[in-house]
Amino acid sequence: MDTGPSPNEIALTALTACVRRACGVPSVTPVGQRASPVSASVFGDPASRSHAIVLRLGSAKLDSILWVSPRGGLLCSCFGGTQNALVVSVSSRSSDCKHVELLRRALAASGVPLRQFRGRMRLAPDAKNYATCKQYGAAVLWVSLYQKVYSLVTFSAASAATCLAPCCRRFGVRCGHVKLVRPLHLERLAEAGAAATAERDVGTAIKAAAVPSARRRFLSSEEEDAGIEKLPSDTSREKSDSPEETVAARNPRNLLPGMGEMAEAEVWARTADWKKLHAAPVPTPKEAMNENSKRLAELISFLERSGNIRDMTNVLV
Q: Are 112 and 22 in contact (CB under 8 A)?
């Protein structure tokens, strides 16, 4: 039984497309009916040209952030990792976690040379600390660079911070990444609260404006239909029909057809009968059939001129 691609294969596909986009190479992303459980995005700081790849595999504990150290090593901060990225980045070594191995496979599958990838993603030796956020549904994920080490910082509903970097787990609440992100997170919450309050105030004002200040509970028929009886009617009426004022004043109103409408209905019914006779084939010899058709056409033309049937070539407006 085919169970579909494995999570590693889906992650490899997403990471390969992300690597190609990061290096300016055209990429292809598969599109399906279901949303992919894996996403790979490039985050960066335009001021310092610092970039990193955030790889999300479902739940928050499977998130990881990948980047290139100033010496060219492939580094990762993930929940399953135990290496101190700051210590590893001093040399040209790379992390040995599964995400770095997946990145190497993605580089091989993408056809992008490692030298080109390092040239695009290498962290500058004088890179400045920065933080940026990304909204994933109701969750907010912060990408933070502090002292040449990238990490992912998340906040709970009670504003309790969690830093993903292995070197910060012993003091994750007060590490440099959290101290850098917390003021920005509180500022973002304040802006979101102000926007929600303003939106709620606008909604309240709209509802208040929609309710009239002084309005009677009931309206009389004269006030509700003011001016309707004075408009020209689209219904054909005869002299023998009741006056429009009388018909409009009835309660309930009369919806039966008038004499003029009934006369027009008879004309339309007569037209349909004659058109059916003219269109129906008659089992007679060809010479007699042509003669009968000619006579019938002359008769229909006379009836149209006299008004007994409708001329179907005239468009009704």
A: no
- The whole-number mean pLDDT for each consecutive block of 10 residues of the chain, a chain of 317 residues, reads 70 87 79 72 81 78 83 84 79 85 89 88 87 80 87 83 78 79 88 78 68 58 56 69 69 70 88 83 68 84 86 76
Rounded Cα distance between 6 and 148, Å, is 33
Alpha helices in the chain (DSSP H): 7-22, 85-89, 98-110, 114-121, 176-210, 221-224, 244-249, 259-279, 286-306
Helix, strand or coil, per DSSP, at residue 41: strand
Q: Tell me which residue has tokens 């929940």.
A: 79
Domain spans of the chain, in order of start: 7-195, 257-310
Query: Residues 133, 141: contact at Cβ < 8 Å?
Result: yes
Under 8 Å between Cβ of 37 and 16: no
User: 118: exposed, middle or buried (C-beta count within 10 Å: 0-12, 13-18, 19+)?
Assistant: middle
The pLDDT assigned to 292 comes to: 80
Task: Report, in this order, helix, strand and coil percent for the chain, each rounded to 5.
Answer: 45, 15, 40
Tell me the whole-structure pTM to 2 decimals: 0.57
d(CA 191, CA 205): 21
What is the β-pairing status of strands 130-136 and 139-146?
A: antiparallel
